[in-house]
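Q: I'm writing a short explainer about Thiamine pyrophosphate-binding protein for a general audience and would like to include a description of its predicted shape. Could you first generate the structure from this sequence?
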Amino acid sequence: MQIQVSQLIVKFLQQLGVDTIFGMPGAHILPVYDDLYDSSIQTVLVKHEQGAAFMAGGYARVSGRIGACITTAGPGASNLITGIANAYADKLPMIVITGEAPTHIFGRGGLQESSGEGGSIDQTALFSGVTRYHKLIERTDYLTNVLNQAARQLVSDVPGPVVLSIPVNVQKELVDVAILDKLPTLKPLPKLQIAPPVLEQCAEMIRQAQRPVILAGYGCLQSAQARAELRKFSDHLNIPVATSLKGKGAIDERSELALGSLGVTSSGHAMHYFMEEADLIILLGAGFNERTSYVWKQGVLNPSKIIQVDRNVAQLEKVFKADLAIQSDLGDFLKSMNASCVPQGLEPKPRPDIAAFKRRIDQQNIVHDTVIFGDKFALVKTLFARLEQHFDEGIVLVDDNIIFAQNLYRVKDDDLFVPNTGVSSLGHAIPAAIGARFVLKKPMFAILGDGGFQMCCMEIMTAVNYQIPLTIIMFNNQTLGLIRKNQHQQYQQRFLDCDFQNPDYALLAQSFGINHFKIASDADCQRVFELADFHQGINLIELMVDQDAYPNYSSRR
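A: Of course. Here's the predicted structure. Afterward I'll give you a sentence or two in plain language.
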């Protein structure tokens, strides 16, 4: 049976399991939009294409499934780049469909043409550094191979964004629907099996250690069973667990064995334990990047022995030499350890008193004036304490601000913490949270500063249009806080282009038709948790922060 390419693309999306696609139509992509009209895929109209890419990324991040977005040619496609780059850095499966000018005008100065011909924008070059696969589809005779390559990248062990750009005339051409039958079964490749001698070697290193510690990273959240197996492993052997920022929530942070986050913007509990106590560090799906390593601080890992486990072979020993490096899915590895080595005589260690250790470090921080948050952050501490206590069920925190929640919110078993890692773009939290809410029907929070808010606030209307419950926590200090902190610490307070005037956020919220709460005192904070509808409402919570309040850490930038 012959169908249009546009219809084939929609059927391909359905075959990938896509049920929601975020985007904005334009003339060069209308054939695909017309076929979406009769499909089972829900379309979501955004306010800016960057928002579409961030929404697709948020959807992919919390679901583990393929996120999708769609735009027209030219600026519609180029506006996606930051969101695609973010997904590329976070290794998120995302398919992007863009339109293109018709092939017969390539090189002739066609409207929004990006073929690279005749001096036009070269979209292939534009996307080449931020995609796993990109193809400008100028003909239909190789369409089977293109869709095959796209599908393989999306379900690979290390996925990332795929961009298919289709000229509007090609979208209208007829092809055989049997093309889809020629595609391989879209499922991940079989996982690597860990050899028993490797498991025993790992167990022997743990057996010989006096004070092992685990650093759990994003890999422990990507694997479906890793969180439960990690808790079982840690509890049985009495091994304390720290997390990377991206791995925060891999273990319930209220646990007696939870050390909190390791990283330059954290309180230092985990860093001191690694440097002063540990003789074996077990890295589980954690990269040792700039933030986690305290800008590769000497001594954070040394002189401990190191076991590193990661599903991505490119991450193994990328920064340091490991005594034992294992390529494996983290859930499979931990399940194997719990099933084989633990029952076969791997005895528990003496249970460390992590609470006492944290108190000692806190006291040292007071003495040495290295407490990360001073008195000016008391209201921020109150907010996160109430947020942690208020919900018995799990919540989702999509966090651009990072530093507050990293230190002040203990992620529970049913919570999901989504920090803005990737390329760390401002303007990510609100659209990413909207995308995530299409997957998880939990109370959803977007956390960001007033600078980032103004980059993405119009996507609030996307939440309004589709009745997406969302609570935005915005810190109002009328400045780009990180820039001002660095200019204060390293540039003799020569403040330039960091301070700004804010709109009246109460009036702005009123214009959106959403709820507004302003927190300037503890009483205001209590009122928010008494009145706000976190389950069905759309709320903007504005928390006032002193412009001259700086977290006490240095990123050395």
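A: For your explainer, you could say: DSSP finds 22 helices and 20 strands in the chain.
Q: Perfect, that's easy to follow.
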